Amino acid sequence: MTMTLERARLREDFLLPETRKQEPFGVFGVYVHWPFCLAKCPYCDFNSHVRHGGIDEGKFLAAYRAELTHFASLAPGRSVSSIFFGGGTPSLMGANTVAAILETIVALWPVAPDAEITLEANPTSVEAKRFAGYRAAGVNRVSLGVQAFDDASLKALGRMHTTQEALAALAIAKRHFERVSFDLIYARQGQALLAWREELNRALGYAHDHLSLYQLTIEEGTPFAARHAAGTLTIPTGTRARAFYRLTQELCDAAGLPAYEVSNHARPGAESRHNLLYWRGDDYAGVGPGAHSRLTSGGIKRALGVRKSPEGWLAAVETVGHGLEQDEALSPQEQADEYLLMGLRLAEGIDVKRLQAIDGRILEEKRLQELEGQGLLRRREDRLQATEAGHLVLDRLILELAA
Ligand SMILES: C[S@@+](CC[C@H](N)C(=O)[O-])C[C@H]1O[C@@H](n2cnc3c(N)ncnc32)[C@H](O)[C@@H]1O
Ligand code: SF4
Q1: What sign does the dihedral 338-343-82-86 (CA atoms) show?
Q2: Using a 6 Å CB cutoff, which residues line ligand 1?
Q3: pTM for this model (two decimals)
Q4: Which residue's alpha carbon is at the smallest distance from atom 15 of ligand 1?
Q5: 86 C-alpha to ligand 2 centroid (Å)
Q6: What are the C-alpha distances in Å from 53 to residues 39, 50, 253?
Q7: What are the average pLDDT values for consecutive 10-residue runs of the chain, which has 403 residues?
């Protein structure tokens, strides 16, 4: 326990210097959403679609370039510190398409020489063959959707790869990229705590510098939600779910990959810079079907969103140059709520002075003391951090603080 706390303290120190102080506008990232998958996984509610007849990748590429150009006009004078290709399954994109999108971004904004450029990939053998091309295009980090190191579970999750294939893809990824992460889903139906201990220990043996570990969530409207409602799919809840979470923190801490966010673990210095900018409330431009953006200018932060349907988005971009269907200024209160909601997910927590600067909010001392007394919050100078116990009841904690 002492070891865990010491490590946590080290990480807070590591993360404290905020990049926004070094740049007049703060850090800025570009997100590119590729909305297609080979098959729809039964637990997933991401904006992902299967097109058995294939798609015209050239048309989509032209639309990405056009929408990026539109966003450059909305976010002038920014420098890009990270780029993230997410999905859907971006590893279905040809390497030439990825290269052309990166060239477009470089032509529109200055891109930092050490920019983090991540691509999410599914670990099938077909996709692993594209890794060399992605590296040549400029991608320097991959995030693989391994999900489980157990073939029966992969099948139950509707995945298209086996454990063997995932391990082969991981080995290829490590050969091509400086930075490699992979995702696992745990607290799955029928999974025993002991089995997760073994699986996670195995995973930690393969981990490079980053791991995303998600507890299975039942998302509304998915086949898993229907099975859950019918009682044919059950997942751990309450004390059992907490035991899975605690075990995950314990094993990752011991392996030198502590959590820097509720579900994300990294060796110090290997945190996903792109994802950090969402949680720290920095700006980003998101292009592609269903992507969201946060852009600040003249002291006003705007929330933007584009059409979700791939074909609807394509048609809109071909007609007016972008797929925007939402563009609203966030009130100071909305911004402060968002900062609380995202920032408390991070081990480094939030800066109360920044919160105050956003909407004048001063958190009530009595309430803070109560939450500290309950072991859910801790204070480190100007920072407020959720403890491990706090992360387990984060929704409640945020509601209490936002009240
Ligand atoms: C955009 S998705 C995946 C990218 C890629 N298409 C893949 O499946 O590997 C990002 C991650 O979210 C996680 N995820 C998606 N739905 C989830 C759910 N219902 N519960 C827990 N984790 C989920 C998975 O681990 C997944 O890898
Ligand atoms: S989990 Fe990944 S592969 Fe599966 S449907 Fe969602 S985005 Fe597609």
Answers
A1: negative
A2: 43-44, 46, 86-87, 89, 120, 122, 145, 147, 183, 185, 214, 216-217, 219
A3: 0.93
A4: 44
A5: 10
A6: 13, 9, 46
A7: 30 37 70 97 97 96 98 96 97 97 98 97 91 98 97 96 96 96 97 97 97 97 98 94 96 97 97 97 97 94 98 98 98 94 96 94 93 95 94 91 80
